[in-house]
Design goal:
This protein has 16 helices and 9 strands. It is of the alpha/beta class and 360 residues long. Strands 1, 2, 3, 4, 5, 6, 7, 8 and 9 form a 9-stranded mixed sheet that branches. The longest helix is centred in the first third of the chain and has 14 residues, at 15-28. Bound molecules: S-adenosylmethionine (SAM).
């Protein structure tokens, strides 16, 4: 995990001083305080949520100027700051939220994330624990707490994945393609095209197909007779279905699906999916069985320099190339092709990853 050089001293945050900062920001956005119509400001936020973040930030500050303890504005502003990498600002807003709404788990959850990103894992774990006390059945909180505590966890829980992506489905493509310059799917299609011997491809299994970005890119460039998509999230699958490119779509855990494959595939792909699975052994072992001889398993992972795999504070795993090579050898895949790529942006920086193809 990336830690900041300078640790943020959150104990020094003075909420009153911060509110004055908020007021100055309102002025900077030049929003006229009259008439103070909070519902209208929220309506504009909803309309412009993805397209105009500056307007959203501006309106949130404006609402907080009129109503400093407004729950929705504090929560949304703190979440927005996390999405846009404004860590210290968002952390301060979450602290204000936790001060005003002591028993609301959301602000403590956000604080857990902020402290984690700011490099203070102890404070992060403390906040996640407090959030868990307030919301004891939350699988997501248990998972994030384990990440903050650096516990060895093999895989993200299914409930965590379904919740995350069911909520994300509507904005996923705009967010990934426009804001984060996501390109794993394009990179994998182009890498595969260098190697696949013939077209049309008979069958391709797209595991964790999401909204169908990979399938869309592949079918634009290569003819494929049978394209099967599998995902845990119902809402992501609905988006895939709208693309009308998959021959079959299944709502299932991908390892369970692999275990049931009777007719082997020519290609199996996972783009930006193994970031939710630490222990890759079940995926690699079962993919081997589900591939035709000579078939390809293609995937992307976030890069880890050494060791095997590591769970980060953002709930995503990174994997090392040496770990993947070990598994490649253990499960007797013939050849391994790999290259380092920029997967997407995170807070303005490239996220380094590996593009990997294993040939059976
Ligand atoms: C970041 S998205 C990537 C989607 C798509 N492959 C792409 O490149 O845009 C990760 C997807 O993997 C799915 N996923 C994660 N773990 C899974 C699992 N164990 N079984 C099935 N789907 C899973 C999620 O529901 C989500 O749709």
């Amino acid at each position: 995990m990336k830690t900041l050089q300078l640790k943020f001293d959150y104990s020094r945050v003075n909420p009153v001083r911060w509110l004055n900062v908020l007021k100055q920001k309102v002025k900077a956005f030049d929003i006229k305080p009259n008439p103070p119509v909070i519902p209208e400001l929220f309506a504009a936020i909803e309309k412009n949520y993805e397209a105009d973040p500056a307007l959203v930030f501006g309106n949130l500050y404006k609402i907080l100027e009129i109503s400093p303890q407004n729950y929705e504005a504090l929560l949304m502003l703190s979440e927005m700051c996390l999405n846009y990498g404004k860590m210290q600002e968002g952390c301060t807003v979450a602290l204000l939220g936790a001060k005003h709404y002591k028993n609301d788990f959301n602000f403590h959850k956000l604080l857990g994330s902020y402290f984690g990103y700011l490099g203070d894992l102890q404070a992060s774990a403390k906040s996640f624990k407090r959030a868990l006390e307030l919301n004891p059945n939350s699988i997501s909180l248990q998972y994030l707490l384990q990440a903050a505590q650096k516990k060895k966890v093999n895989i993200a829980p299914r409930e965590y994945i379904s919740n995350l992506f069911n909520n994300y489905a509507d904005t996923y493509e705009v967010s990934l393609l426009q804001n984060l310059e996501y390109k794993s799917h394009i990179e994998l299609v182009d890498y595969l095209r260098l190697l696949i011997p013939q077209e049309p491809v008979d069958s391709l299994l797209d595991l964790g197909c999401g909204t169908g970005l990979f399938g869309h890119e592949f079918t634009k460039k290569v003819e494929v007779k049978k394209l099967v998509g599998v995902d845990l999230s119902e809402n992501m699958l609905t988006k895939s279905k709208e693309k009308n490119i998959y021959t079959e779509l299944h709502q299932s855990d991908l390892i369970e699906y692999l275990q049931k494959v009777n007719t082997p595939f020519d290609i199996i792909t996972l783009t930006d999916v193994l970031v939710y699975i630490g222990d890759l052994e079940p995926v690699i072992a079962n993919s081997y069985k589900a591939l035709k001889p000579g078939g390809y398993l293609g995937f992307t992972v976030e890069a880890l320099d050494s060791g095997t795999y590591e769970l980060n504070i953002n709930g995503r795993y990174r994997h090392s190339l040496s770990y993947i090579t070990t598994l490649n050898n253990r499960y007797r895949f013939g050849k391994i092709y790999s290259k380092t790529i920029a997967l997407r942006k995170e807070y303005g920086n490239n996220v380094a990853g590996y593009l990997v193809l294993l040939q059976k």
